[in-house]
Structures are given as C-alpha cells and as structure tokens.
Amino acid sequence: LTYSDSSPLRSILHANATHDSDGNPIRKKKVVVLGSGWSGYSFLNYLNNPNYDVQVVSPRNFFLFTPLLPSVTNGTVEARSIVEPIRHLMRKKGFEYKEAECVNIDASNKKIHCRSKDGSNLKGTTEFDMDYDILVIAVGAKPNTFNTPGVEEHAHFLKEADDALTIRKSVINCFERASLPNITEEERKKILHFVVVGGGPTGVEFSAELHDFLVEDVAKIYPTVKEFTRITLLEAGDHILNMFDKRITAFAEEKFQRDGIDLKTGSMVVGVTADEISTKERETGKIVSEPYGMVVWSTGIGSRPVIRDFMQQIGQGQRRVLATDEWLRVEGCDGVYALGDTATINQRRVMEDIAEIFSKADKGNTGTLNKKEFNGVVKDICQRYPQVNLYLKKNKFKNIAQLLKSANGEDTEVNIEKFKQALSEVDSQMKNLPATAQVASQQGKYLAKCFNKMEKCEKKPEGPLRFRGEGRHRFQPFRYRHFGSFAPLGGEKTAAELPGDFVSIGYSSQWLWYSVYASKLVSWRTRMLVISDWTRRFVFGRDSSS
Ligand code: FAD
Ligand code: MG
Ligand code: MG
Ligand code: MG
Ligand code: MG
C-alpha cells in the first residue's frame, strides 16, 4: 500500500494508528467546516472520528442561541448568556479554529479563500487559502431586503448578537431623546414610533417583547412620554405567522389588537429614508409614508454572496437556494456537503422514479407485483420518500397496503398502472423543510453520524435504495423530526404547535417554552446564565441602561 492509497480497507485497518504498516504517516482526510451556528456547531459537537483532521472557519468565535435573541433586545436576557465560545468545543475535540470568513469556494481545485475580519483595534484584514478533502458548508443565510431602497442604511436587522444589542441601545436612546426638553409633540411621536417589518415568528416575537418592555418598564421609568409610543407591525401578506396553525394566527392577531399594537397586513414596504417609511397598500395601491423613530427589518432570508458565486460555478445559478440530495451532498460537485439555512434538500418525486421502482421490485419480470414483492418495496418507498407517509397520514390510511386496496380492489397482484394510480397523489405532499434551528441542528447531528461511520460505509456506498442500487445502503437519507414550534406572544403567553395537531396557547405554554429552551441551551454554563437572567427579570424588572 502506498502513501497515497486511500482504499477504505486500509483506513479501517489503521483506524486509530498514526502510521501505516510501512511506517509512513497516514494522511488524515481534511474536513473544513464553514460556520459555527446551529448546523455547524451541532455537526462539530457530534463528530467523533479520529481519522479526520478538522478545521473550522467562521467569522464568529461563538455559537449563538438564536431563539432567545429577541429577548436580548429589551434586556430580559443578556447577550453573553446565550453565546457559547467555540474554543471550548475545539479544545475538547482537538479541532482547529480560524476566525475568518470564507469569501470564495473553488470546488474544482478543492480550495477555499478566506479573509479575517477587521477587529476593533486591529485595522486591515489578512487573507489566506485552505485546501480541503471534504467541505461542510454551514454558513447560514443573510437577511433578505428584496432590494428595497434604504433598508440596508436605515433599518436594523435581528440576526446576530450585535444586532440585538444595537436595537436595545437604539430603543433606549429613542426614549431618552423623547424625554428631552424642547422637543415638539409631533417630533416626540415620530421618535417613539417603532416599526417592525415582517409578520414571521421573529418579527412577531420582537413586537411582543417590545410591547412588554413598554408596558412593564417604560411606563414606570419614562412616565411623561409613555402616551406617545406606538408599535406598528407591517406584513405584506394577509396574516401574520402564516406558517403556523390558523388558531395561533387568529389568537396572535387578536392579542396584538387588544395590546394596541398597530397591525397592518397587506402593506408592503417600498422604501425607507432617514425619517420615513413608505408602504404600498395592496387594496388601494396607494403609497403611504409615515415618520418613525426606529425600524426593525425581519422579512426572511436569502443566500450569502459566497454561496451565490459557488452556485454559479457548479451549475446551480438558476436556483434560489443551494440544493443538496437527501444525504446533504451538494449537487453538481464532489466532497461538498451543505446544511442548515444555507441549503435545501432536493427531494425526489415518487412519480419520477416509479417505473424504476416497479421494475426493481418485480423480481421475475412478470409485469405484476405479488403481495410479497409489493410489501418488500413499500417499506423502502416510505423510507426513501417522506411524502408518502405524510400523504397516508393526511388521508387517514393506516398503511400503504390500504392505499393500494383503494386503487386495486381485492386483486392480489398489482400492475404498473394500478401502482402508479395508487401513488399518483403522494408527491403533492412534498414540501421544503423550514429554515429553523430545529432542522439545522438535526442535520448537523445526522451528518456527524454519517461521518463517524464513513470508513465502514465506504465499502458499501451510501447509494440509493436496495431496489435502485446494489446491496443494502448503509446511510439512511436525512429525516427531519418535528418536535413542535413556539411563538412567544408577550405578556407571558406563548403559542405552541406540537406534533399531532395539538395547539396550546397561554401561560402553561409559556412555561413549556421556558423549560424546552432551558433544556436545549447547549451547556450548563449558558443554562445557568439564562435562568438567572429570567429570575432577575422577574424580581427586579429589566435593565434600562443603554
Ligand atoms: P447560523 O446559525 O446562522 O450559522 C451560520 C454561521 O456561519 C455563523 O457562525 C456565521 O458567523 C458563519 N458564517 C457566515 N458567513 C460565513 C462565511 N462566509 N464563512 C464562514 N462562516 C460564515 N429557529 C427555531 O427553530 N426556533 C426559534 O425559536 C428560532 N428563533 C429565531 C430567532 C431569531 C431572532 C433568528 C434570527 C432566528 C431564529 N431561528 C429559530 C432560526 C435559526 O436561528 C436558524 O434557522 C439557524 O440559525 C440556522 O442555522 P445555520 O447553521 O444554518 O446558520
Ligand atoms: Mg452553522
Ligand atoms: Mg446560530
Ligand atoms: Mg435548509
Ligand atoms: Mg412479479
């Protein structure tokens, strides 16, 4: 065996050795991970394979627990309490970390180009290249402005820890400014007009947090200006929280109404200047401009520039989001994986593969599947195509045999036409996974587990299903398990949508939310800090210094 020989057998034999049988050092495969967020951190956390030389590149030397970020904007939780330094994990795992941003991926030469960030006391940047054998892209996404003029310049985003701190300072500055003498009433109203753009979970939660702050704290500390404050939530669609159950949307809209949050649906922002925000009303087509003191922009996410370039390179230029297969391998290049918000899984349609599925299952080439053949193939289909289970559930079929019976009657043999007919509707249940921490962290864990048994599986490639490839596949495709979503609505009320069509709204869900998030906080350190922040808030109220 030569040094360059990378046969899987050899790596198994020498799984823990640093030298091969000839005394040559084994070159470990170099895995470069981009990003230290939900997906990247989770991948690194579960990766336990001594055969990899792992290098992490991220401009941020910490993991950020984003679900609690809106609570940082009003001081319920401190920013420090929801970050976890990446260096702790690096030391524990023996990985290497570089604080830099990847600015270019050269997939054909398996190289990346990186740039360090401008530090506060270190002016200028440093650039360097890195080689990789395997690249794991977990860079997340950037806020999407839809090219609305003035947004980059004048609005705040709520994505990073710094954003939350800036928002917090800005809110308090507005109140201090409004409390100064020689400010006209009109100006005071303008300064204390807070506008939130986007009725998704983040926009809604931020509005609720801001409202709580106004009611519970501002009323006491700025009693003279309280009456001038106003919160407006702008949403282009018909409803806020439209990804949630209708009951939750209705409850949230009603609650906001009662709280006096000015909810404007059907109004799309067309521009932001230093003093005014302009919206186009969908019904009338009229453009309305209103003065504001602060705007927070939270309308969704888009691909980062480095990913857009990369997509051009690998022939995905026409797509909106980077596509992977169900094993999280980037389509169109070799040795590159992508997970989290930066990518979507390009799920295959059953109907595209149906002829192939049928012929593989039809062992004797008889043109029909008997009961045994049919049952054999069904299990694989359910595993490979998640839309099948969703379809069965939606239509209240206990299993796929029932579905077939509805198409095939009492016949025991099924031909291709009946087979197609039975499955003809299942693809309608395909949907992309949401861009959430839940998905990102599950993908990180999944990929780490694949990497942990990579050598064993390389012998039997992770390829497609039994009936499509040779032998049994070792890697299951990625499967998402939904554990429910929460939408904190302020005033100690949280809406929870749990699996099994269970919706709960109120105080009990608030406590469920506290306990779920406390249990998900990555380390005992952050857990302690957040719980003490919560306690402090209950006892002493929020800190209102900027
Ligand atoms: P991120 O977690 O964003 O991580 C990206 C990482 O890549 C960061 O470390 C970043 O510094 C780094 N990076 C960026 N550019 C580069 C580059 N060029 N090179 C190298 N590294 C780079 N989801 C839920 O499930 N529940 C919630 O309650 C919830 N609340 C949220 C609240 C807020 C305010 C926000 C903003 C998001 C919330 N989310 C929530 C969504 C969740 O945070 C994201 O889905 C999740 O962070 C996606 O993980 P990721 O690893 O893809 O990206
Ligand atoms: Mg990440
Ligand atoms: Mg994160
Ligand atoms: Mg994704
Ligand atoms: Mg047959």
TrEMBL record:
The keyword NAD applies. Its cofactor is FAD. This is NADH:ubiquinone reductase (non-electrogenic). It is an enzyme of class 1 (oxidoreductase). It catalyses: a quinone + NADH + H(+) = a quinol + NAD(+); a ubiquinone + NADH + H(+) = a ubiquinol + NAD(+). Its EC number is 1.6.5.9. One of its GO terms (cellular component) is mitochondrial inner membrane. Its main location: mitochondrion. Belongs to the NADH dehydrogenase family. It comes from Cardamine amara subsp. amara. The keyword Coiled coil does not apply. It is found in: Mitochondrion inner membrane; Peroxisome. It is a peripheral membrane protein. Residues 349-384 form the EF-hand domain. Pfam families: NDH2_C, Pyr_redox_2. Keywords: FAD, Flavoprotein, Membrane, Mitochondrion, Mitochondrion inner membrane, NAD, NADP, Oxidoreductase, Peroxisome. It comes from the Eukaryota. One of its GO terms (molecular function) is NADH dehydrogenase (quinone) (non-electrogenic) activity.
